[in-house]
Design brief:
alpha/beta, Rossmann fold, 13 strands, 11 helices, NAD(P)-bd_dom_sf, Epimerase_deHydtase, SDR family oxidoreductase
Length: about 290
Amino acid sequence: MSTPRLFVFGYGYSAAVLATRLRAEGWRIAGTTRSPDKCQALAAAGIEAFLFDRDRPLDDPAAALDGTTHLLLSVPPDGRGDPVLAHHAQHLADLRTLDWGGYLSTTGVYGDTKGEWVGEAAWLRPTGDRARRRVEAERGWLGLHRQYGVPLHLFRLPGIYGPGRSAIDSLRDGTARRIDKPGQVFSRVHVEDIAGALTASMARPNLGAIYNVADDLPCPSHEVVAYAAGLLGVEPPPLVPFEQAELSPMAASFYADNRRVKNDRIKRELGYALRHPDYRSGLDAQMAAERAA
């Protein structure tokens, strides 16, 4: 049996955690980045690295993708659509070694549910341009699956956190804020659980399936910051009413939607047990790892 090979379009935070796990099992890893410096750093770390962005498709797609058994798509769509689909849809359709593919989307495709729970079968009612572009990208990837048999799955992710990108880190660097918008909740997921759900799907492919990957405890973001402050033994930032917070348009857009994301499908179909079912578990684990180091 040949060595499995993961190819990642958009080798970023979540992909790196998955790749680390698979490399420990002997997998070959390849991925794209927009930065020549990061491309060199990935290559130095033993990863087959390629430059790719909207204005720079893969130089030799057939050679870059050769031997790929698993594909992770983590490049967000831009104003012109999904750049991977635009440049390399046919190359992926022609890839006969591919056993599994995953597209990392967002729970933003559901829009605002007024705090109600939402599952994968819900109507998609995106409220902003970025989420609307995601809906179109999802349709494009599912279309590639239906038309050419590309073995694709969709994974809809809420707010991602983990070491380096948690409330602990934002408190340390002075960027943490506690915004109060009564009734507002957010779903989130630890980066290790993204990797866990993806590997569970690889073990149990269900081509064309859609999965929410979220933890069990949607809650206001200010609660997470307060808990992290307690772990650090510092005073949490003051609670600021949303109307007085003077958020940037980008930051304010995150408060436009209010929803709780169901995660029962990854548990039922994939047999996946969350490593961090709530933010307390994830933040506790980060602090414990730091102390041990």
